[in-house]
Design a protein that fits this description.
Number of domains: 2
Number of strands: 10
Largest sheet: 4 strands, mixed
Strand content: 5-15%
Shape: elongated
CATH class of the largest domain: Alpha Beta
Bound molecules: zinc ion
Structural class: alpha/beta
Radius of gyration: 19 Å
Oligomer: single chain
CATH architecture of the largest domain: 2-Layer Sandwich
Strand order of the largest sheet: 7-10-8-9
Length: 229
Amino acid sequence: MSAPIIASVGENGTNIKADVIVVQTLLNSAGAKLKADGDCGSKTIQAIQLFQKVFMAMPDGRVDVNGSTWTKLLEGKLKIKNLVITPKPLILLPQVCGLGYYTYSPTKNQYGTKDTINAIQQVCLQFKIKWPGVEVGIGDISFQSGALMPPHKSHRAGIHVDVRPLRTDKKNKPITITDTAYSRAMTKALVECFQSHANYKSVLFNDKEIKGTKFYSGHHNHLHVSFKA
Ligand SMILES: [Zn+2]
């Protein structure tokens, strides 16, 4: 018998270790071949998605407490059909000038899926046309290996990108929304560029005046932009 989980597991989940082990164990019963180590990496998320594909049109990669995925896992009737779990290879964000962005985290932290890297470049070029002379600061994305990148819980599958809010003085420096040099107008325009991209999924950011962003503890000095997997 499986212990119930106390919080969500998977993509953007709470991912408490004991819960992850329970979900990994149930996924293995459904045919996945995961190490039940409590570490919710890209393989576990893909296994959740593959399991969901059996009964769900739009797998979200997450097992919610008492949600349909949890119920089906616990029932133990459905089996994963396609067992091939191949994490998408991650490529490096080109470390170059002149494309509308600069980087503010180590090179080893800036790997993303091809689609995500393309989206970052397209959005930054689009923004560069609207606001010449302003560069967008790109921070942590993922490690090439997809390994855990503390303090982040996500940032493993190459689809989450930290981005600096923009400054009225256009300097390539840190900024928080309470600083006088914070530019709501430019940051709002940047968020809109991200939101209009076909691969855009969500933004966590704490300036409540910018529509379509979600408040999340710690996100007063960066935007956490997520793209579709
Ligand atoms: Zn982030």
